Automatic annotation (TrEMBL):
<feature type="transmembrane region" description="Helical">
    <location>
        <begin position="29"/>
        <end position="51"/>
    </location>
</feature>
<keyword id="KW-1133">Transmembrane helix</keyword>
<feature type="transmembrane region" description="Helical">
    <location>
        <begin position="233"/>
        <end position="251"/>
    </location>
</feature>
<feature type="transmembrane region" description="Helical">
    <location>
        <begin position="72"/>
        <end position="91"/>
    </location>
</feature>
<comment type="similarity">
    <text>Belongs to the 4-toluene sulfonate uptake permease (TSUP) (TC 2.A.102) family.</text>
</comment>
<keyword id="KW-0472">Membrane</keyword>
<protein>
    <recommendedName>
        <fullName>Probable membrane transporter protein</fullName>
    </recommendedName>
</protein>
<feature type="transmembrane region" description="Helical">
    <location>
        <begin position="263"/>
        <end position="281"/>
    </location>
</feature>
<feature type="transmembrane region" description="Helical">
    <location>
        <begin position="97"/>
        <end position="116"/>
    </location>
</feature>
<dbReference type="GO" id="GO:0005886">
    <property type="term" value="C:plasma membrane"/>
</dbReference>
<dbReference type="Pfam" id="PF01925">
    <property type="entry name" value="TauE"/>
</dbReference>
<dbReference type="InterPro" id="IPR051598">
    <property type="entry name" value="TSUP/Inactive_protease-like"/>
</dbReference>
<keyword id="KW-1003">Cell membrane</keyword>
<keyword id="KW-0812">Transmembrane</keyword>
<feature type="transmembrane region" description="Helical">
    <location>
        <begin position="205"/>
        <end position="226"/>
    </location>
</feature>
<dbReference type="InterPro" id="IPR002781">
    <property type="entry name" value="TM_pro_TauE-like"/>
</dbReference>
Length: 303
């Protein structure tokens, strides 16, 4: 029972991050399930089955708040579903010994991308509520995002959200809401791929239900916070957390000694905490500067 409650908390936290940043549910949940001892294929299958419910809740919440561009959802989600099915089929036929470090490398790479992206080049802020991107851009993006999502146990958000935000042509709330909504198609296709290749006997439904329950509770809150939370700080914090949870699997695949592993963890933790503090300081400095400029402009206007 205690384990299931802990997993529900994991699901709540992962969905809160995902709904606010447009990424993080799969990579966070899968990383922790790997630590708990699940095989890569079962961990990814469990997360994607749970995401079927959280994606619906998140999509409805974003739709009610006007954060969804349905044209973007379909143009991104359909190829994403095809890529996810292919990724689930591939992962189901890879040996556990090879799949675990492979998945940890994918998750760690995604975590590094999120950390560095939000620390040094935060996404551009646009105002367009409908995406101007064509199928030429969205179809390859969806295929790649879906494949990475299934093979890495997460990655739809880091690939799709960051690419769309980096283009700086669509409002962040529309990008995040549309990517979260389209993720239902990706999760459904990935789940179907795992079920057809693995069956249902190896899946622990207690884990799925616990993750789902936590995610359902967090989805409305995350949708509300999407335009109110300092995404830059959260992006750095979440990226570092994802890397930390996957370092052990990567270190286990090497010939490093226990002392070297400890030094590696310590060095990364120091860098991560330093980057988080620096990002928070820059965010506060920019906020105060913007406020001061606004007050100066208002004072000049009143004269």
């Amino acid at each position: 029972m205690q384990k299931l409650l802990l997993l529900a908390v994991v699901g709540f936290g992962a969905q809160l991050v995902d709904g606010a940043l447009g990424m993080g549910y799969g990579v966070t949940s899968t990383s922790l399930l790997l630590i708990a001892g699940l095989s890569p294929a079962l961990a990814s299958a469990s997360v994607h089955l749970a995401e079927l419910g959280t994606n619906v809740a998140s999509g409805v919440s974003h739709w009610r708040l006007g954060n969804v561009d349905w044209r973007l959802v379909l143009r991104l989600g359909v190829p994403g579903a095809l890529g996810a099915f292919a990724g689930a089929t591939f992962l189901s036929h890879v040996s556990t010994a090879l799949a675990k470090p492979l998945m940890a490398a994918i998750l760690g790479g995604l975590g590094m991308y999120i950390l560095l992206r939000y620390a040094f080049r935060p996404p551009e802020v646009a105002q367009a509520r409908r995406s101007p991107h064509t199928a030429r851009f969205l179809v390859p993006l969806g295929l790649a995002g879906g494949f990475v999502d299934a093979t890495g146990g997460g990655g739809w958000g880091p690939v799709s959200t960051t690419s769309l935000l980096s283009a700086g042509r669509t409002a962040p709330r529309t990008v995040i809401g549309s990517v979260d909504t389209s993720e239902f198609l990706v999760s459904f296709a990935a789940s179907l791929g795992f079920v057809l290749n693995l069956g249902l006997l190896g899946i622990d439904w207690g884990i799925v239900v616990a993750l789902l329950a936590g995610g359902l509770l967090a989805a409305p809150l995350a949708a509300w916070l999407v335009s109110r939370i300092p995404a830059r700080i959260m992006g750095v914090a979440v990226g570092g957390l994802i890397i930390m949870t996957n370092l052990k699997a990567l270190f286990d695949a090497t010939q490093l000694t226990g002392e070297q592993v400890t030094v590696g963890f310590t060095l990364f933790a120091a860098v991560w905490l330093g980057l988080t503090a620096w990002t928070a300081w820059r965010h506060e400095r920019n906020r105060r500067l913007t406020l001061a400029l606004r007050e100066a402009a208002e004072a000049e206007w009143s004269i």
